[in-house]
Amino acid sequence: MVEIIQPVDPVQKAIAYLTPFFPDVVFGLGVPSDWTWGPLLIVVSDAGGAGTHDYILDNAYLRVEISCQDVELCSETARKIHGLLAAWQFEDRAVYWDRTLQRPTYALDEETEVPSYSLTVSMNFRMTREQVTAP
């Protein structure tokens, strides 16, 4: 038996944290095939990060993209998500805010002409201990 320290999945953890604040919104790792390019969509992805430091912390960059036809709603949602991610450390002792890498920024999808905002933040997550045994 070996005890390991492994990183958590920052994307799944972020989606679980953010979903209750946006109960009627589609969250995903990408654009769902049945999305109609209109209602609010929030995509969370792992954009890299510095990795393990201080033995127990894992640094991850979270990229969040918000799309919908209503540009004001996109902007408001992006800024709210940025604030929620910054405040997350006060709700979960295993999460630590590091910094903003890209502030909420507007872009227009050239192909679909759907407005979107994106942001990228650096977060530290406490890794978990696990006992691993060989089969």
Task: Quote the beta fraction.
Answer: 35-45%
- Based on Cα principal axes, name the global outline: elongated
Q: How many domains?
A: 1
Number of strands: 8
Radius of gyration: 16 Å
The CATH class label is Alpha Beta
Structure class: alpha+beta
CATH fold name: Alpha-Beta Plaits
Could you spell the SSE succession in H and E letters?
Answer: EHEEEEHEEE
Helix content: 10-25%
Tell me about the largest β-sheet: 6 strands, mixed
Beginning-to-end CA distance, first to last residue: 10 Å
Second rung of CATH, namely the architecture: 2-Layer Sandwich
Unreliable sequence segments: none
Mean of residue pLDDT?
92
What is the overall number of helices? 2
How does the SSE layout of this entry go?
Elements (H helix, E strand, L loop, with lengths): L1 E5 L3 H9 L7 E3 L12 E6 L4 E3 L3 E11 L3 H17 L7 E14 L6 E12 L1 E5 L3
Parallel strand pairs: 2-3
Antiparallel strand pairs: 1-8, 3-5, 4-5, 5-7, 6-7
Keywords:
135 residues; alpha+beta; single chain; 6-stranded mixed sheet; Alpha-Beta Plaits; elongated
Q: How does this structure look, described?
A:
The protein is an alpha+beta fold and 135 residues long. Helix content is 19%, strand content 44%. It has a single domain, classed as Alpha-Beta Plaits. Strand 6 (95-108) and strand 7 form a beta hairpin. The longest helix has 17 residues, at 71-87. It is elongated and about 55 Å long. The relative contact order is 0.25. The mean pLDDT is 92.
